[in-house]
Amino acid sequence: MFVVTPFVGRRSAVRGAAAQTVRPWRMQAASESTPAGNSRSIPFAPAPAAVRGSGLAGAEAEFDPLQLTSVIPISWMRESETKHCRIAMLAFLGTLAQQAYQFPWYKGAPTTLVGAHDHFVTTALAQILLFTSAFEVVAGVPAAIQTVQGSGRLPGYYGFDPMGLWGKDEASRKKMELSELKNGRMAMIAMLAFWHQEVLSGGMGVVEQLVKGKFTP
């Protein structure tokens, strides 16, 4: 598994007998209130069949209001989502880190999100785009195609797990998969918020906004 996440899912504070009591109750409440053919996350909408039967982490929510998985293979969609999640988590960490520290060879470069983008768009960012595009052509797209064709490869899996976070059993793998997915989705939303907040505030970085208590444009 390729794991790039600034946040790692933690165990619930509810353990032991309490956990055994709470979890079944929540599942039962969801199943009783949702018609059999409807989505568990959107009770008034039909459940996306491809999501329901995929077995992927996070699929239990049955969330696909636009029914995109009825047109595009869900394994392809999850591959794309996982990659965007990882990019967003790296971007989230980088956005905060560059406002706290700069490498000596980047002294004088803007530290804000929009400013750094505009400053490096024709240099470092162009290199990143070149390298990631090359990786996609050589490994990313062929791997995704194999997954769609039923090779058994999990979407987003590249065998890269230097810290051993993948786990040694199915339960550990599912937990880490779901943790990466949830944190990645939050990071994508956060990056959109960072970008818009910085633009609306006239170029003030998110860290500076927090320090000065500037929570509205």
From TrEMBL:
One of its GO terms (molecular function) is chlorophyll binding. Keywords: Chlorophyll, Chloroplast, Chromophore, Photosynthesis, Plastid. Chlorophyll a binds at residues 81, 84, 180, 183, 197. It comes from the Eukaryota. Chlorophyll b 1 binds at residue 86. GO terms for biological process: photosynthesis, light harvesting. Its main location: plastid. Pfam families: Chloroa_b-bind. Gene3D superfamilies: Chlorophyll a/b binding protein domain (1.10.3460.10). InterPro entries: Chloro_AB-bd_pln, Chloroa_b-bind. It is found in: Plastid, Chloroplast. Chlorophyll b 2 binds at residue 185. GO terms for cellular component: chloroplast; membrane. This is Chlorophyll a-b binding protein, chloroplastic. It comes from Cyanidium caldarium.
